[in-house]
Fold Transposase.
Amino acid sequence: MLRNLRIKSFQPEEEYIYLTYSLKNDKKEESRVLLENYKNLLQKALDWLWDRTRIERKEVKKGKKVITKVKIKLPKKKEVYKTLRDELEKINVLASHYVDKAISDAYSILKSWKRRAEKGQASLRKPRLKKVYVRVKSTLRKVEGESVRITVRPYEYITFSWSHKWFSRRVKGLELGEPIIKEDIVYLPFRYKLPWFTPIDFLAIDSNLYTLDAYDGEKFVTFSLKELYSIKYGMELKRGRIQRFASKHKGKELLRKYSHRERNRVLDYIHKFVNELLEMYPITMFAVEKLNKQEMFRDANDSLSKKISKTVWRTIHRVLKYKAPLYGSFVKEVNPHLTSKSCPRCGWVSRKVGRTFRCEKCGLTLDRQLNASLNIYLKMCGFPHTRDIPRVWVGVTPLKGRRRMSGALPRDSGEVQRLRIDIKYHEIL
C-alpha cells in the first residue's frame, strides 16, 4: 500500500490539446472504397448488437400520474467481443484493424442512444447510420514527412499531404493523432504539448442575453454581445421570409445556404472575441457558469424562451476552454445556483428577483448581473454554499473584514459601482 502512495515526480503531469485542421479529400475514389466497406462493417455490428439489446419498461406512480420508465441493457463487450469479431471477419474486405474499430464505434453509438432514450429524448427504435466517417487508428497510419499514409487493405494505401498548406508551419514538429476521413474532407488532429503555467489573474464571467459581465478582483468589465444576437435575430427573419414565399424544394436550398452562412458568421465572431479576451487576460483562471438551457426553457415564458434560443453561451465557453491552454490559461465551470440572488458580502439570499439586487440584511445594493459575477468569483476561489442559518441558504462565506486580501470585495454599493467600466466588443476587436 505504501508503494502506491509514493510520489514518482514533483513535476506536474504533461497535458496536451489537439489542434485540428482540414484538407480537401482529393482521393475520393480510393476513399469511397474504404467508407462503403466500413459502413457495411459498422451496420453489421450495429444490427448484431441490437438483436441482443434488451429494453425494459416499468410503470412508476408519482402522485396521481403514472410514468413509464425505460431501462436498456446492452450486451457486455467482454462477453460478446470474440463472437462478434468472428462474424464481422466473414464479410470484411479491409484490414483487420477496421473490424475492431467498427465494434468500438457500434458500442459508442448504442451507448449514446441509450443515454438519450432513458431520458426520453430519443425513440426506442434502432439508431440509423446516415453519413459514415472513418477515424483511422494509429496502427493503420504512418507519417512520412508532411504526409500520412493510410492502410485500406494489405499493401493498398491512401496518402494525404499537408505540404504547402496554410497551416503547415503551425504543425511543424507536432505529432499527428488519428485522421478522420469523410467523403469530401479529411481532418488532421495534431497533438500540442502545453507549457505549464501558474495563473496570475482571475476572471469570473456571468453570461447574460446581450452581455458578458465579468469581475477580475479589481473592477467590473462588460462585453457587449448585441452584434452576435443580431446575427441570430436576422437569420430568424430570413427563415420566416423563405418559409412564406419560397416553394418547398427552393426553400430547403435557401435555408441550407443561409444557415451555413449564419453558422460561419457566428463562429467567426466567437473565435475573434475569444482571441481578444485571451490577449487581454493571459495566464488567467476563467470561471464560467455551467448552464443548462433546457431548464431555462421550463422556467421562462414564450418571449424569454425565444431570446434564450438565440444565445450561444455554450459555444463561447467551449471555444474559450479549447483556446485557453494556448495562452497558459484555464477554465473552471461553476454551478450558477443562487449566484444572482445571494449577497456577496454577508451571504443573505433574497427572494425578490429584479434588475437591482438589494440585500435585506446588510443593505448592499448593486446591479444583479454584477452581483452574479461577484458570486461566481467567490465560488471560483473556493467559497461554497453552506447552511449556517436555519431556513436561510447562505450564498457565500462573508469576506467582510478581509479587505487586505487579494481580490477582496468592496465595502459598499457606491464603491462597487465606481469599479465598473464598460468595454464593448467592437472597440476591442
In short: Residues 385-429 have pLDDT under 50 and may be disordered.
